[in-house]
């Protein structure tokens, strides 16, 4: 039998080991996520905070600015202005992705210029909200259009460059051989999270007139820009793309289509050596899909003239270029499913804030709730990566998108019924006897929609497309969801303009929501059908295409 004093020692050592283990885990976590390890990134912290503050205080409720007393736009026109801003931002981001390969057009310069545009946009709208042009509706329209364009360009540039810039500062802080890319991204996300929390706390003080909101937010962003400029001499140099040909490869899609159309009457070759740079000796290029087989003709070598001459004339493409273009077109049916989703998302962003503008209480609590629901979706990846085997991880991502589609349908079904109830009890031009928290369910679902689909789509598309396209994936996804979705929303608003009137209380927003609920269900059915194609397909050849690309480029150049 063990003496009692030895039992006490064993018990103490056991408790001590558990305590030490917890201390070690806490210290390891602190070291892994320590955002203050890179002092240089502190100079950019002000811009991270100010950008989040503007998103919450200005961008999220921009529709209510256009229906305010200063502009007095009908709700339909106000929503169109908001959608134009969002669509332009997504389009500008595509252009920035293309032109940022220029060595003289790095992230730092984009951040500086975009922030200036951002501030000027808010200053222009501040002049309108101060009723300096109240006697001229034409001047109000002109200045609002200027403000929307400046906000769109500024927001696109800051969103495009600020995250990669901070990540590069964390990455360059350590010697290259010991850079931990996962830790770099983890610290960047923590930095973003801290900025969001601070912006939420600060936005509570901005409950007031639009003029005051614009003055405070533009001043905060101006001071953040000054802080950013103070750190210029300490920043690590931005990374430059070593090979513009490789980086521009996604834009070879049009070249491949053109070459294929020019050779549409040609027969498919019976020998693999008839394909240009056919390293694997294929007779049918990957991915082997019947409706994309015609693109193979772009790589057929014509015997009538020299190969270099055929390339210059746009009549010949490499096998790698054709295969990558086929992988791109393979994803188009999936992207089409997100057109409808983007329409619903843009409609929610445009109308939900206006719907609660005359209710009891501030919009801020439901906006915060929406952002929290969006962030909660990060737990989906965290938990599933621990519990789901790697073999079925792709199917799990497909299910994630399906859940987002389901939430989008429920979101507008709930918004429709809430609007029906609101119109039943409201009196024209009076404050609605309803709490703002009636809108909490639809704002929560809107956040879940964006979190489940928008945050997961980048990883899915990166997995499906060759690695050489990965720099373009965020911009392409943003254009599909926010860009095309916003432009479709504009078309739908004009197609149903008889439903919208000023004020909102005399409009038919409930009928519009009903139509979108039906559209959401149809889109869900389409996605359910189309997703089966991607659960069966494999992306292994996409990786192989990328592995061959370097030798192909070297040969072509």
TrEMBL record:
- Its transmembrane ranges are 115-133, 145-167, 188-208, 214-235, 334-353, 398-416, 436-453, 474-496, 516-534
Q: Where in the cell is it found?
A: Membrane
Please give one Gene Ontology molecular function term for this protein: transmembrane transporter activity
Cellular-component GO terms for this entry: membrane
Question: Which keywords are on file for this protein?
Answer: Membrane, Transmembrane, Transmembrane helix
InterPro entries found in the cross-reference section:
MFS_trans_sf, POT_fam
Lipid bilayer topology: Multi-pass membrane protein
Does the keyword Transmembrane feature in the UniProt annotation? yes
Concerning Pfam families, the annotation shows:
PTR2
UniProt xrefs under Gene3D superfamilies: MFS general substrate transporter like domains
| UniProt record similarity statement | Belongs to the major facilitator superfamily. Proton-dependent oligopeptide transporter (POT/PTR) (TC 2.A.17) family.
The name under which this protein is listed is Uncharacterized protein
Q: Which organism is it from?
A: Dipteronia dyeriana
